[in-house]
């Protein structure tokens, strides 16, 4: 699968790192850009280039008393941490600059309750650890930084990073490890396992399990490393029931814990959205089992991601932050489909449908897994979307699924009917998409013909 994905090229020099930070202060193009900066700061933060001070001048400002501050005149991109942007990049940059400019005074926005209790809570606590490493000048890799588009991490590079941290005697942060395991690509896991440094570490067993070894958590693992074993299990298969989680009542009763949650489209007016006057939708998505009043937990991102599908308001989020929500657990197509369903079915301003959304949609359909009910529902909503590039992206996805055998006419028809009963879909757009698909090959033409026959059998006119 990694062969289909574009590798993310890491920042290689201090000059490149400074340029990336300056650019991000103006605009953040994607979550990949943010991760590249974090990775660059942690690997290269102890280095300098020959014009180091001159290049950093745009980041600094001197007040009337001669005190140097971290410039905050252009805060909209990196330094605006209003709950929807809780990555704490300002603290990381500020502490790094303080190493080279001891007189620097900088302020940052403290963690809000929303930042700690949000889908990003695991990232927030990981960034606390990275800030601590910067202060102690413990520069080295970050396990959870994506190596390929879509949030995936090449297992070989993951093992290289882990071995490097062990050799440098840098403490493995459990939040970083949990996020990294959730992002492991299915490719090359067994090969990477052979290169793993097996020096004693409390996380050695769970890393071996995440890389494919057949293991069960021991007694102390069940007491102290439930979160790590959950992340490793969910990385191996997002839908399988995890028997090892039966010992933890907290995990076993929540969607994304012992069992993956099941999503259901229902007819309902969301009072929260109505109050915010952002949407007036008459539909919602339920999760089974019901998470109740669960508050996000910093050690259980798979549960946070699943539960957030019901409550996350995309209108509050920067595009890059929205992109990050769909790349934290890339192997799970179900939760990604729910996030995209909210974006497409709510029909936002076309200006909000930027390149990041296109990339997210393409990455959703790159996996070779069979499509869940929510993915099929997303396809139906995509065909109905008013923006042509969204329609074409969903058409391309279905064409590929037809050719590799994942497509099923029954699933398409049944999910279209279910979505149409709650969200009125335009049949002419659906038929137009089928017409485009039928032109691709004889196999696609046969699939479309069978689909149309089933619509006719149900008494739905197709012309």
Structural account:
With 463 residues, the chain is mainly alpha-helical. Helix content is 51%, strand content 4%. It has helices spanning 14-26, 31-44, 52-56, 89-100, 113-116, 121-135, 155-167, 174-182, 189-193, 204-210, 219-224, 226-236, 249-252, 271-276, 301-311, 319-325, 333-345, 355-364, 373-383, 388-404, 409-422, 427-438, 442-457; strands spanning 60-62, 68-70, 262-267, 283-288. Mean pLDDT is 80; it is low at 73-86, 111-117 and 272-280.
Give a concise summary:
The protein contains 23 helices and four strands.
Outline the secondary-structure elements:
Blueprint: H1 14-26, H2 31-44, H3 52-56, E1 60-62, E2 68-70, H4 89-100, H5 113-116, H6 121-135, H7 155-167, H8 174-182, H9 189-193, H10 204-210, H11 219-224, H12 226-236, H13 249-252, E3 262-267, H14 271-276, E4 283-288, H15 301-311, H16 319-325, H17 333-345, H18 355-364, H19 373-383, H20 388-404, H21 409-422, H22 427-438, H23 442-457
Antiparallel strand pairs: 1-2, 3-4
Helix pairs in contact: 1-2, 4-6, 6-8, 8-12, 10-12, 17-19, 19-20, 19-21, 20-22, 21-23, 22-23
Biggest beta sheet summary: 2 strands, antiparallel
Strand-and-helix sequence, N→C?
HHHEEHHHHHHHHHHEHEHHHHHHHHH
Q: Classify the helix fraction into a percent range.
A: 40-55%
The radius of gyration over CA amounts to 23 Å
Mean of residue pLDDT? Answer: 80
Number of strands: 4
| Through-space gap between termini | 39 Å
Class computed from helices, strands and strand pairing: mainly alpha
């Amino acid at each position: 699968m990694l062969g289909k994905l574009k590798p993310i090229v890491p920042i290689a020099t201090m000059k490149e790192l400074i340029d990336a930070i300056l650019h991000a202060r103006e605009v953040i193009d994607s979550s990949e850009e943010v991760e590249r900066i974090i990775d660059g700061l942690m690997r290269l933060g102890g280095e300098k280039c020959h014009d180091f001070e001159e290049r950093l001048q745009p980041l600094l400002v001197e007040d009337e008393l001669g005190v140097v501050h971290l410039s905050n005149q252009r805060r909209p991109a990196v330094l605006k941490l209003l709950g929807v942007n809780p990555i704490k990049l300002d603290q990381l940059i500020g502490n790094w600059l303080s190493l080279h400019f001891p007189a620097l005074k900088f302020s940052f926005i403290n963690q809000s309750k929303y930042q700690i209790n949000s889908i990003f809570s695991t990232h927030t606590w990981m960034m606390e650890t990275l800030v601590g490493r910067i202060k102690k000048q413990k520069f080295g890799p970050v396990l959870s930084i994506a190596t390929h588009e879509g949030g995936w991490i090449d297992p070989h590079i993951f093992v290289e990073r882990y071995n490097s941290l062990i050799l440098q005697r840098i403490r493995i942060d459990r939040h970083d490890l949990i996020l990294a395991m959730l992002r492991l690509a299915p490719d090359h896991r067994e090969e990477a396992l052979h290169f793993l440094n097996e020096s004693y570490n409390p996380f050695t067993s769970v890393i071996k399990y995440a890389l494919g070894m057949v293991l069960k958590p021991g007694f102390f693992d069940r007491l102290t490393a439930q979160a790590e074993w959950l992340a490793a299990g969910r990385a191996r298969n997002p839908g399988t029931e995890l028997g090892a989680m039966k010992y933890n009542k907290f995990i076993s009763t929540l969607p994304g814990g012992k069992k993956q949650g099941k999503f259901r489209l229902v007819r309902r007016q969301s009072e929260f959205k109505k109050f915010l006057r952002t949407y007036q939708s008459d539909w919602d998505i339920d999760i089974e089992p019901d998470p109740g009043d669960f508050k996000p937990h910093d050690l259980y991102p798979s549960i946070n991601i699943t539960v957030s599908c019901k409550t996350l308001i995309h209108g509050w989020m920067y595009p890059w932050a929205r992109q990050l929500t769909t790349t934290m657990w890339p192997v799970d197509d179900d939760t990604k489909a729910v996030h995209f369903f909210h974006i497409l079915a709510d029909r936002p301003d076309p200006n909000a449908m930027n390149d990041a959304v296109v990339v997210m949609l393409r990455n959703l359909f790159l996996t070779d897994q069979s499509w869940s009910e929510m993915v099929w529902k997303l396809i139906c909503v995509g065909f109905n979307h008013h923006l042509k590039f969204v329609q074409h992206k969903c058409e391309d996805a279905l064409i590929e699924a037809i050719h590799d055998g994942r497509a099923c006419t029954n699933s398409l028809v049944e999910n279209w009917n279910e979505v149409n009963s709650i969200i009125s879909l335009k049949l002419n757009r659906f038929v137009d998409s089928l017409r485009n698909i039928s032109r691709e090959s004889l196999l696609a033409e046969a699939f479309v013909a069978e689909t149309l026959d089933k619509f006719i059998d149900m008494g739905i006119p197709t012309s």
